[in-house]
Structure formats: structure tokens, C-alpha cells
Structure to design on (298 residues):
């Protein structure tokens, strides 16, 4: 798919991140798309909203998609490079592709995923970068808690 | 800690696994203990019970522990070698130690964790092995779904 298609998918993840920010949460969003382009699930970080440290955006989107027999051909779209936890999710379940808004404010496990056969598309989106940079500057303690730093 | 101490902790995870089995679920249990030995959270695989593919045992125990500022000194006890998803959880949040009931029926990412500074204690518990072996034999399709195989 051309990057233009991925950017339309990224918009779903960005909308989730912005909703999270409006709720006082951590602005990271994600969406899981099927091999045929169907939206299977979408979600956002819910650490603050639900008091749930396991609810990273990618996990929330994966959960929202419910039980699936196979993840072959699916794409996880996320506003930010996936942490080790979410990278492990992608590897374990055989999600085929990860589309990443940006990896400048945080660099997770996407090189490890690429080395293990996952297709990585890094969009370097300036809106994603600005949203995360502003958040990390405003709430460093919350951000560090979210990544166990 | 002597292995006898870890086996007492493992009993908590085994009790979770047995509860899951009784519910018709996948018999994997886990518990997160604090540096001082306090039980922070416990949980079991809830794929069947909640229709939630993200609820692996370790993630469920981590979630039950709620928000924590640091995981330094904590121990994740699990009946089965942690898959990549749960191994990623341990690495990202800096959980110090993983105590594993068995790694014979499934071998996840615990060598990777050891290589990245996590203390691994493999108990090779015969009850854990038998419980998982019986389950995989009885419900192979459900087990494969749970690990994306």
C-alpha cells in the first residue's frame, strides 16, 4: 500500500490518542486492521482513565478486536514506536505489519520486530511527534511511569 | 530466597490456573510479588471467560496490581514460561525476577529476559507440567489460538 493509505489508517490511531489526551490520559492511540483493510479494533492508552497499567494503546486495540483465529496479514497502526510489551504482543500473535506514527520521542522494539520478520512502516508524522513531545514535557512523571522508567 | 519460598509463591499461581480450568478456561496462572514479599496482584488467563485475548495470566496479575511507580525488586511468578507478549511486559516495566513453574510444554522468552538482566528461576514443577500437558492434549485448538500458532 502507498503511504497515503497508511496515513488514513494512522488518522484512526491519532483520533484515539487525541481522545485520550482530552480525558487527561496519555496520548497514544492504535488500531488493528485486517488483511482486507477492515478495522478490527481501536484503542488508546488507558492508564489514567482506568487505572490500568496494562492498557497500552496497542494492547487496547488488540483487546477490542476480540478473539481471532489468526493475525496473518493484519496491521497494527500506532502513533508511537511500540514498547517491549507491545512489541512482544505483535511478535507472539504473528501480526504481520506495524505502521508507526513516529519513533523520535520514544524508540521501542520495532527494530527487533523487523529482525523477526515483521514489516515495519515508519511514517515520521509531525503531528504525532508534536503531540508526544508536548505531553512528555508537560507530564514527565506520568510518561516515565507508563514505560517503567 | 530458597526454592521452598518460591514454591509457596508458585502455589498462588497454580491456584489461579486451577480456577481458570474449572471455569473452562486456559489453565495458566500468575502472581506479582513486591520486593518485601507482599502479594501485589494475581490473575489467570481469561481468553475464554472474558473473550479477551490480551488477558494472559501475567498481564492479568500485572493489571490486578494497579499502577505502580516502580517494579524494582518485584517477582512475577507464573505457572508457564512467559510468551513474547508477557516477556515484553517483564522487560519493559523492569520486573526484576520471573519464577516459572515449567518450560517444557511451552518455551517462551525467558532466555531473552535472562540475557537482558532479569533473574530467571525455573522450578520444573511436575504439577504444572501435568496440568498444561493435559490441557494441550484436550484442547489443542484453544491452546494454539492463545499463542497465535
Amino acid at each position: 500500500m502507498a503511504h497515503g493509505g497508511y496515513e488514513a489508517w494512522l488518522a484512526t490511531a491519532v483520533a484515539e490518542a487525541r481522545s485520550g489526551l482530552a480525558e487527561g490520559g496519555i496520548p497514544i492511540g492504535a488500531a488493528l486492521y485486517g488483511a482486507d483493510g477492515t478495522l478490527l479494533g481501536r484503542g488508546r492508552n488507558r492508564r489514567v482513565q482506568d487505572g490500568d497499567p496494562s492498557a497500552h494503546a496497542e494492547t487496547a486495540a488488540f483487546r477490542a478486536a476480540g478473539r481471532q483465529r489468526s493475525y496473518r496479514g493484519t496491521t497494527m497502526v500506532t502513533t508511537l514506536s511500540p514498547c517491549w510489551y507491545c512489541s512482544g504482543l505483535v511478535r507472539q500473535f504473528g501480526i504481520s505489519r506495524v505502521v508507526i506514527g513516529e519513533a523520535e520521542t520514544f524508540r521501542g522494539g520495532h527494530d527487533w520486530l523487523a529482525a523477526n520478520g515483521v514489516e515495519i512502516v515508519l511514517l515520521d508524522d509531525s503531528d504525532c511527534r508534536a503531540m508526544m513531545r508536548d505531553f512528555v514535557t508537560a507530564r514527565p512523571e506520568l510518561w516515565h511511569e507508563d514505560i517503567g522508567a
